[in-house]
Automatic annotation (TrEMBL), chain A:
It comes from the Archaea. The lineage of its organism: Archaea, Thermoproteota, Thermoprotei, Thermoproteales, Thermoproteaceae. This is NADH dehydrogenase (Ubiquinone) 30 kDa subunit. Belongs to the complex I 30 kDa subunit family. Residues 43-171 form the NADH:ubiquinone oxidoreductase 30kDa subunit domain. It comes from Pyrobaculum neutrophilum (strain DSM 2338 / JCM 9278 / NBRC 100436 / V24Sta). PANTHER family: NADH DEHYDROGENASE [UBIQUINONE] IRON-SULFUR PROTEIN 3, MITOCHONDRIAL, NADH DEHYDROGENASE UBIQUINONE IRON-SULFUR PROTEIN 3. One of its GO terms (molecular function) is NADH dehydrogenase (ubiquinone) activity.
UniProtKB/TrEMBL annotation, chain B:
It comes from Pyrobaculum neutrophilum (strain DSM 2338 / JCM 9278 / NBRC 100436 / V24Sta) (Thermoproteus neutrophilus). Keywords: 4Fe-4S, Iron, Iron-sulfur, Metal-binding, NAD, Oxidoreductase, Translocase, Transport. The keyword Iron applies. Belongs to the complex I 20 kDa subunit family. Signal peptide: none annotated. It comes from the Archaea. GO terms for molecular function: 4 iron, 4 sulfur cluster binding; metal ion binding; NADH dehydrogenase (ubiquinone) activity; oxidoreductase activity; quinone binding. It is an enzyme of class 1 (oxidoreductase). Residues 36-144 form the NADH:ubiquinone oxidoreductase-like 20kDa subunit domain. This is NADH-quinone oxidoreductase, B subunit. The keyword Oxidoreductase applies. Its EC number is 1.6.5.11. One of its GO terms (cellular component) is respiratory chain complex I. InterPro entries: NADH_UbQ_OxRdtase-like_20kDa, NADH_UQ_OxRdtase_20Kd_su.
Amino acid sequence: MAVKAPPKCPPPADHPLLEKLRTALGDALLSHGVTPEGHLCLMVPPGKVREVAAKLKELGFDHVLSLSAMDYMAEGKFLVMYVYASYLNPDLKNQLLHVRAEIPRNDPKIASIADIYPSADYDERECHEMFGIWFEGNQHMGKRFLLDPDCCIDEKTGKPLYPLRKDFKVPDWGLMG
Amino acid sequence: MSQALREFLMRKAKLEKLFKWGVRWSLWPVHLVTSCCGVEVAHTSGPGFDAERWGVLPFHTMRQSNVILVEGTITRKMARVLKMVYEQMPEPKYVLAMGACAVRGGLFWNSYHVVQVDTVLPVDVYIAGCPPTPEAVIRAFMMLHNKIKGQPGPYIEPTKVDLTPYLPPPPKPQQKPAAQAA
């Protein structure tokens, strides 16, 4: 059964924040879309993630709600998804800003934004051990954070396996466990 | 000497029955809330169900209690803590696995990071459900009572109530029309 992968960015539409972000980000904005809930979604190049984060901090987004990844195994890519939001700025109330970047699956490396947004630190560490994405600049890369130290290790090579990748195989418990 | 005295007291002086009676009516479970089953245990000890009628007093430290009630999903990291907690408890001690997650993994069956409780601890009573109702928890404690008495099994007879005087009379079967002659 072939499962169709979801689109990387929702279809484009008009959004009140779009003009402001387009002037602020310049050529760091590749494409955009609006989710069915009415939140803006931006695609950015993976090399400019730190630059985008610094500019969004100037615009008033004061924390990263969520940082996760998605495995597009057929295309050989990871989609790293950042969700920015604001507590204090009244203009950005009830707004979530999705920022997404594509990185190759065989060499998953992207710059860390944990020093700009400290709330992204734990999410980066979780994303690192679930997907194996290396966030350059985060000091905790290569360590276990949420997973058990004995869990998800390849028996032959001793290297860690990443359980949320599509090619990860869980040990089968059988019918009755 | 103390061993011989203990043997005498338990066997000859027939204190074993008294001992079991004492253990049976003071089962103090440790809350090990790892999932939503903890909400149901809160109801069990609340005034609505009041499990303290059977001597079930919720307790917070494992060193002073004798039942560990595993409420929910046990991950591999939590299993280490569970084993440590269990080994700190004084004898006699009992383990109750509550909910589908603790029994067979439940929603997280065959996950990379979930273990079943009976691979870690010797489980005395399983409670099925997702989450189990407070009645099911109380029933599990009754089963534990029976196990301590030495007659394991759910020996709880249901209360029978005759409702026929309060119910409407059953409808009379309608008579079939006679078959018409062809």
